[in-house]
Amino acid sequence: MRIGFVKMHGLGNDFVVLDGRSEALPEITTTLAAALANRHTGIGCDQLVVLDGSDVADFRMRFFNADGSESGACGNASRAVGLLHGRPARIETQGGILTTEPSEAGISVDMGVPRFDWDAIPLGFAMDTLTMPVGWEDLRDPTAVNVGNPHVIFFTPDTDAVDLARIGPIIEHDPLFPERINVNVATIASRGAIRLRVWERGSGITLACGTGACATAVGAMRRGLVDRRVEVTLPGGRLIIEWNADGRIIMTGPATEAFRGSFELSDFPA
Ligand SMILES: N[C@H](CCC[C@H](N)C(=O)O)C(=O)O
C-alpha cells in the first residue's frame, strides 16, 4: 500500500506529515514511526506528524519523535500544519486544543496556557519549579514548564558553550523526569531577546523547537528576565513568543513545505 506524505519544516525542525483524513493509514507504532523518521534507512525527520478526524476540532494532530515516542505538543509542526491548512484551524492534540492562523510573519499558534506544578511537568517528586534546587555539572537551578509537553530550562551566559550533545541525554533520562524531558539551554540577550538551543526528548538536538521557545520564554518571564513579548533566536531562526493577558502563549513564525512524496508501507517494519 503506497502512502502519501508532505515533507515540511519550521526553522529547520523537520517533519513528515501523513494525512489520515484523505487516505487510510496503518496503526502508527513506535517501530513504524522510528523507521520512517530514520535519516539513513527511512524518509528522515525530527518528528512524524499524523493528521486524522476529530469530534471536537477541525482535525486531530499527533506527533512522534525520531525514537518513535509520542509527544503531546510540537510547536513548529503546528505552524507547518497551519500552513498546510491554509486558513485558521482548531486542532485537537494530546496536549489540548490549539488554534493556528496565517499571519504576516508566517503562522501564529495559540499554544494555550502553560502549567507549572511539579506534578504537571511532571517531576518525580514535589519541588519548586520556578527555581529547581538541582543541577547537572555547570547547568544549575533550572525552571520547568509544561506547554503540552515537558521542558526544563537552564539559563547560562553562553548557550553555544554548552556541550548539549553530551549533557542533553543525561538530563533527558534523569529519574527526576518520569516522562523524560526536553532540555533547553538559554542565554538572555536583552529584555526582548533570548538565544536558545534545545536537546529534544526522543529526537536529540534540533535546529529549532517551538515548544522549547514557548517554555523558555515563559520561564524567563516568570523570573522577570524578559518582557511578555520576546524574540527567541534558535540555530534555525527566530520565533516571536507572547504570553498574553489571558495567560495564553502565542507563538508566531515561519513554516515551509519542502516537497511531497509517497512510500511503500511494506518497505517499513510494522
Ligand atoms: N520540535 C517540537 C518539539 C517536539 C517535542 C518532543 N521532542 C517531545 O516533547 O517529546 C517543537 O517544535 O515544539
From TrEMBL:
Chief localization: cytoplasm
Pfam families membership: DAP_epimerase
Any one GO MF annotation of this record: diaminopimelate epimerase activity
Domain of life: Bacteria
Pathway the protein contributes to: Amino-acid biosynthesis; L-lysine biosynthesis via DAP pathway; DL-2,6-diaminopimelate from LL-2,6-diaminopimelate: step 1/1
Active-site residues, record numbering mapped to chain: C74 (proton donor), C74, C209 (proton acceptor)
Residues given in the record as substrate binding sites: N13, Q47, N65, G75, N76, N149, N182, E200, R201, G210, T211
Alphabetical list of SUPFAM superfamilies matching this protein: Diaminopimelate epimerase-like
Annotated site location: Could be important to modulate the pK values of the two catalytic cysteine residues: H151, E200
PANTHER family xrefs: DIAMINOPIMELATE EPIMERASE, DIAMINOPIMELATE EPIMERASE, CHLOROPLASTIC
Similarity comment: Belongs to the diaminopimelate epimerase family.
Description of how the protein assembles with itself and partners: Homodimer.
Primary role: Catalyzes the stereoinversion of LL-2,6-diaminopimelate (L,L-DAP) to meso-diaminopimelate (meso-DAP), a precursor of L-lysine and an essential component of the bacterial peptidoglycan.
Annotated protein name in UniProt: Diaminopimelate epimerase
